[in-house]
Amino acid sequence: MNTELFVARRYLRSKRYRFFSLSTAIAIGGIFVGVAALLITLSMLNGFQNELRRRILGGTPHIIVRRYFNEPISDYPTLMEDLKDFNFIRGMAPFIVQKSIVRHQRQMDGVVVKGVQQELEAVITEIEEKIIHGVFNLDDGCVIGVELARSLKANVGDTLVVASPFVEQLGMFPRAKKIVLRGIFDLGYYDYNATILYMDIRDVQSLFDIRGYVSGIQVSVDDVYETQRYSKQIENKIGYPYRAVDWIESNHSVFAALKLEKIITFIVLTLIIIVAGFNIIGTLVNMVKKKTKEIGILRSYGFKRASIMRLFIYHGCMIGIMGTLLGVVFAYIACLILGRIVFITLPGDVYFIETLPVEMAPEDFIITAAAAILITFLATIYPAVRATKLTTVEALRNE
Questions:
Q1: Angle, nearest 10°, between helix axes 305-340 and 22-59?
Q2: pLDDT tens-place string over residues 138-192
Q3: What is the pTM of this model?
Q4: How many angstroms separate the CA atoms of 312 and 310, rounded?
Q5: DSSP bridge pairs for 221
Q6: Beta-carbon neighbour count of residue 364 at 10 Å?
Q7: Mind giving me the DSSP string for 127-172?
Q8: What pLDDT is recorded for position 184?
Q9: Pairing assessment for the beta strands 89-104 and 159-168 based on DSSP bridges
């Protein structure tokens, strides 16, 4: 074994016991806490972001083709024929979106009425798979989210009244339609569960007096992460006055905020590791003072300044590596437990989802471990250089 490495390892233990000295244990603990906290937090943010992405995709089309200013489309069959030329499109479906009011007995709430074709909607979204009560049947009926059902105190089989506040027919008069609640869905995304009401597209056209028109075309593609490129191809083909908006652009503010939050969290929690690095500096400086006699003896036996420097660098790096490994192992085990057992629930109206998912990313573990070891290495340089400045005579003068 390398002599410097042997001595550095010996300095980890206390003089009386075979265990780590108190100062060494505190230094290792500082790195351990910083690395574990950073990795657990990043894994939570990864899980939150990925789960939110999956739930958004469960109820959101990959791409929506609409006219500018969201004007209604009348020639949508021709538009759908043009879109069939793209081999990356898996399915298409026309839809109508209108804001309205729904009432059940004395309970009333504002909703977004979405008119769809039942047989095509199953290809675009996961709404049919997310029905928790009843069935996905829009034949003179509707389906609503679980939060909206609670707000209206409605159950499957109840009759709801959907109103169109103003219809231009002999003046501005409201129009209403009674429909049966056929099913209740849970997409796991609070906004969808609390605001969307699905109806047959023909019923919506009749209710809002927009027969022959749709709001746009929903498009499902083969790769959800290539939708930005696909959208540009669609826009280049169909041209003005149509535009294609992908799911990433539609939820840009949400994902941008999550990305910024992850970056800030990484920076803030890295400060914990930096603080632990200063703790290592203090530990090594104190050790240099305590080991003055040993340093003088080593110098008298022919140890060069570079060897003394390597000795203390090895010692500090051992502390950093052990603290980092303990932090990585603890974070991995903690993330596995948090991923399987739900300890934390979230208010859905604030955080969009009700549980805190955890999803580990290998790159986060690699980058965090590398950063911790690098910070530890940098922290060892000053004490190691200071140790090399001791001369043999000064080190042994008072011994």
A1: 40
A2: 888 899 999 999 999 999 989 999 987 765 555 556 678 889 999 999 887 788 8
A3: 0.69
A4: 6
A5: 89
A6: 20
A7: TTTTEEEE----TTEEEEEHHHHHHHT--TT-EEEEEEEEEESSSE
A8: 93
A9: antiparallel
